[in-house]
Amino acid sequence: MTQDLRRFLETIEARRPELVLRVKREVSAKWELSAVQKRLEADGKLPIIVFEKVAGYSMPVVVNLFASKEHLAIALDTTADRVVTRFAEAQKKRVSIPPREVASGPVKDVILTGKDATLDALPIVTHCEKDAGPYLTAGMTIVRDPETRALNGGIYRNLRLTKQSLTMNMAPLCHASTIVQKAEDAGVHVDAAIVLGHHPTMGMASQQRGELGEFELETMGGLLGEPVEVVPAETVDVLVPADAEIVIEGRIRTDLWHDDGPFGDYWLYYAPSKPARVFELTAITHRREPIFHDIFPVGPEHLVLFSLGMEGVVLSRLKELVPQVTAINVPVSGSGNLVYVQIRKEMEGLGVNAALAALGAYRFKCAIVVDEDVNIYDDQRVLWAVMTRTQADQSFFTVPGSYISRVDPTGYPPWHSGKGGAPILSTRLGIDATKPLDPDFPEVAEPPRELWAGLDLNDYLK
Ligand SMILES: Cc1cc2nc3c(=O)[nH]c(=O)nc-3n(C[C@H](O)[C@H](O)[C@H](O)COP(=O)(O)O)c2cc1C
Ligand SMILES: [Mn+2]
């Protein structure tokens, strides 16, 4: 048996009980569950929350699995500052381990097919006030490429349409979109399975930026250090993890679209309604007493997870271009558009070079480069460096007319299209917030570092 969601929850509750909160009071899946999560976040608290009673449903709901790098670190049995490096290694396929097919597993404890296969028992959450309805936000959808037969997994949000249909909202350039387009060209539908609830490495692996044809469960195996056990789905031609909580099987229709949206998304604004593909259920299989997994799409967990995929590739690319890069962080505060880059500044000019390279390595709107003495996991320290180590006319540079995202609410049209073009361009900003190498630059004032940095407070506070 592979590691799974249950074992992860047990581990984290045993090792770091303060990171898990169990809510015993009954909550509604419509808004109330997300309201509790939002209230806690507003108070600076991001525990994993298990809602034990959801009105009208028998399944508990778990959220905030990915809310901080600390949670990911526990899942990878490492420290928060090592998470990106570990992920980058797995992503570069140095440690990927292919899944192992087994005859059966807990995900087959209950098998529902035909008209029994409905979404009615699933506490699908409605998150934001103006969302179009309840959305599955944590399902990893596995599809098979009709041409190469390779499998692919990724998270694409699903709006509940009827008891047996959902949308499958795939961005135009993702692998799944490419695969579904191939099937449409061949005039066939796409066998698919939405996998809900597994060890957090499944979510992490779903965000790998690999090549088409590289199966995400190989990366999951690499992150776990053991093969992910998989079983054939009941009604469609894909393999699914044997230890998942819930699997929703069905077909992505290549001839059918439905409006999807508005939906509160990771820019923390509503994404407007747009047509998405339709997914029709053929079966549901699940463990006994399954746990339902949800991701709050306007909470840190969406951004922490989504950013991990970028951080992995950006770190690898950047180190090739600027070997003095020591670490990067895509902070939640930037909604995926900001990157902090830490460098060992060996010569003047390296800060600007690193900012240029970081902006080139991914579609970031802003790159801020700091020295090794600045904690890039702390927005306050980075802002401090910007305010005490830069001059706007010297240390900032901007590049207009670049493509970041279609959903940048401040995007503008290309200059040659007048007001008529799509507003899809943004201006990029690089900030070199490294201090000059000048030996007369003031020293940071603090008590002797060896006294406070490793200080064990238990010696003083008990
Ligand atoms: C919580 C979460 C929700 C996401 N929702 C979507 C989505 O609705 N549509 C989409 O195209 N990508 C979404 N993504 C990003 C994709 O999962 C990601 O780009 C993935 O790598 C795509 O895999 P693929 O290229 O193999 O298809 C989401 C990511 C996260 C973490
Ligand atoms: Mn892929």
Question: What would you say this structure looks like, in words?
Answer:
The chain has 462 residues and is of the alpha+beta class. It folds into two domains: 5-300, Pnp Oxidase, Chain A, CATH 2.30.110.10; 322-452, UbiD C-terminal domain-like, CATH 3.40.1670.10. Helix content is 27%, strand content 26%. It is built from 13 helices and 23 strands. The protein has helices at 5-15, 32-42, 69-76, 83-91, 175-186, 200-206, 216-224, 300-321, 350-361, 379-389, 392-395, 449-452, 458-461; strands at 20-23, 48-51, 61-63, 100-101, 110-113, 135-136, 140-144, 151-155, 158-162, 165-168, 190-196, 229-232, 239-241, 246-260, 263-264, 270-271, 274-286, 292-293, 325-329, 338-343, 366-371, 396-403, 425-432. The strands form five sheets. Strands 5, 6, 7, 8, 9, 10, 11, 14 and 17 form a nine-stranded antiparallel sheet that branches. Helix 4 packs across helix 8, helix 6 (200-206) crosses helix 8 and helix 8 (300-321) crosses helix 9. The radius of gyration is 23 Å and the shape is globular. The two termini are 42 Å apart. The model has no long low-confidence stretch (mean pLDDT 96). Residues 152, 154, 175, 210, 216 line the site of manganese (II) ion.
